[in-house]
Design goal:
CATH superfamily: Cytochrome c-like domain
Oligomer: single chain
Strand content: under 5%
Structural class: mainly alpha
Mean pLDDT: 86
Number of helices: 6
CATH class: Mainly Alpha
Helix content: 40-55%
Number of domains: 1
Low-confidence stretches: none
Largest sheet: none
CATH topology: Cytochrome Bc1 Complex, Chain D, domain 2
Length: 159
């Protein structure tokens, strides 16, 4: 019961949540001279291909939606994860229980993991899930070697 109250308090008073307006870009807004161009994920035609921009975007999605359970560094030590059983996975180290690689990670993000608190995120746009995959692959010590052709083939039909 204490966890429920603490989690409710976290969601209501501490967690910033998702501000959909934060990603709205005014095309008429002036751009500061010398400023880096703004990354627009809607312009990415092959989100399954990793890039520094996709990793950085994935980190933003992670911090907004995943860090509360997995922790800011992905070590499974987030505040909301403290009361979960089983505990959230340490994304930095350890063996992947649902398979390795981009395809396996994308599937987990899409359907979740039965019997755990890992929820399904099928409501996220596929490009956002791919960005999360790239970020997770960038922080894990258990790197996978994906066949780019297989990932591309899977990604073209993955929703």
């Amino acid at each position: 019961m204490a966890f429920c109250f603490a989690f409710f308090f976290y969601l209501v008073a501490i967690n910033k949540g998702v501000d959909l307006a934060e990603n709205v870009i005014d095309p008429n807004a002036p751009v500061a001279e010398g400023a880096a161009p703004v990354f627009d994920i809607t312009k990415v035609t092959e989100p399954w291909v990793s890039s520094p921009e996709m990793v950085a975007y994935g980190q933003k999605v992670f911090m907004t939606n995943c860090a509360m359970c997995h922790g800011n560094e992905g070590k499974g030590d987030g505040a909301a994860g403290a009361g979960l059983n089983p505990k959230p996975r340490n994304l930095i180290e350890g063996k992947w229980t649902q398979g390795e690689g981009a395809i396996a990670h994308f599937k987990v993000l899409t359907v979740g993991i039965k019997g755990t608190s890992m929820a399904a995120y099928a409501h996220f746009k596929p490009a956002d899930r791919w960005a999360l995959v790239h970020y997770i692959e960038s922080i894990t010590q258990n790197k996978s070697k994906d066949d780019p052709a297989k990932v591309a083939e899977f990604a073209k039909t993955a929703q």
